[in-house]
Amino acid sequence: MTGFLFELSFWLAAPVWLLMIFAPGWGPTARIAASPWTAVPVLLVHLALAAPVFPELWTAVRSPDLDTFRDLTALADGAGAVWAQVIAWDLLIGQWMYREARRLGIPALVMGPLLALTILLSPLGLLTFLGLRATRTRHREANARGT
Description:
Blueprint: H1 2-22, H2 27-33, H3 40-50, H4 54-62, H5 66-74, H6 76-104, H7 108-120, H8 122-145
Helix pairs in contact: 1-3, 1-6, 1-7, 3-6, 4-5, 6-7, 6-8, 7-8
């Protein structure tokens, strides 16, 4: 069951990612990406995986250290719970990036690959987007001032 839930966490998030990447201008995509509720199914998977290892999870978050975290992730349900949490937070980060890109007028052809990068390596995707966002914001402000 743990293996199924581990995989399910990704497949529950995948439709939102696919919409943001392949149908960014479609009306329902913007409404879906604006909702934090998209992460709830993945978080429910997280809870199902976290419940059996709650004592170990609580120990790892109450007094975090590398060995305690390693002990948690050595358990199948512990690793699955951490994975589902990562999938949920990555999805919310991706949704924020999608909305910010639309607000700033960043082209979908730029954002599609950047969102795909974020699915795979969210820290790198987010850092890249933050740099792009800062550049785009400075450019827009300079244009608004007429310089």
